[in-house]
Fold this protein.
Amino acid sequence: MKRIISILIILIVSFNIVSFADDKIEEESSKEVKEVIQIAAEVSKKPSINSRQAVVMDRNSKSILYGKNENVKTKMASTTKIMTAMVVLQNTNLENTVEVSKKAALTGGSRLGLKEGDKITVRDLLYGLLLRSGNDAAVALAEYVGGSIEGFAKLMNENTIGLGLKNTHFVTPHGLDQEEHYTTAYELAIIADYALKNKTFAQIVNNKNCTIHINNYAKNLNNTNELLGNLNGVYGVKTGFTNGAGRCLVTSIKRENLDVICVVLGADTKKDRTKDSVKLIEYVFGNYKTINLTKDIEEDFEKWNQINKNRIYIEKGKNNNLNLALEKKEYTYPIENNTEDKIKMEIQANLNLKAPVKKGTKIGELTIYYKGEMINKINIVNLNEVNKKRIENYILDFASNYDNYLEKIFEIK
């Protein structure tokens, strides 16, 4: 009987490990990681990758530089914790102390090692969430901020609405497999970009290791992100793994003036996710550059303005004194090397307006095309207010043009 019970216990534990494994730190030496990076980095053409979904997005323009099934809904594992951290940062003080509940302490998968009754600050829980990928830390934060897992998930989903995401839905703060917990590679890149704009989040995920305190006792943490500190320009973001999601990695990389987010989801092994990420990163940085279009945009607009500013007619306008300008002048965009000639600009505007014309009124737009596809639109706006004519204005106009009227009527010369 004891033997049967022992076997059952082993099976249950094994099932939990297989079903809920997440971001366990594998004993890989820095040398092994660098060897994988070196092999994967030797890529010049568009790479073939193992991961089922992937995207590389330019942070400045939000343009996609590489995509593979980037809009397909999929599980996201612990990359979920990017949004978890943002909801926490938006809703509580980092120095507040959290008492760990029984539910949080018993959460399976990747763990920070919390026990029921432990006391730890929100800040240290965030480090445990983002570096160690602690599912117990995720539940502790969710209960503290949202009152419950369900309450916290509601806050997470409110953020997706604010970001305009259509294919992302959260059920848990940790990302363990749930049917209605999903995202896409592209929308996950949007979430990561959003999170990195928060200085505290960006600072945390850029740490290779750190020391936190649980019940005033120090605990050292290492970041699960194998590319951080091993690949040039990497400054975040988050790893993930469940059986349903596969191996996942969201990486932010900046070299010179090109700043991108690389997302790989559904890789078969950790080695594959590392190789795929490096292949995509090196491909993009080897084949793309960021150009500043500001000067070209301003020159094209000024040429158009000189030709057309006097052609604009304002019906019933007190005057015709429009002062036109571009709403946004600074603009950079990533393009493939040696393809500057593929950039075209086009201006369209309404030359017939009706008074009053308020300050800031859009009268047209400058559209930028790259390889025939629209990449941006910049509004052309009026900087002056043009009021509608009143009766006295018509009388003054008539008086000032009286002689002209007589000439037309009587043909006096």
Notes: The longest strand covers residues 246-255. Residues 7-22 have pLDDT under 50 and may be disordered. The chain has 13 helices and 17 strands. The CA atoms of residues 34 and 230 lie 7 Å apart.
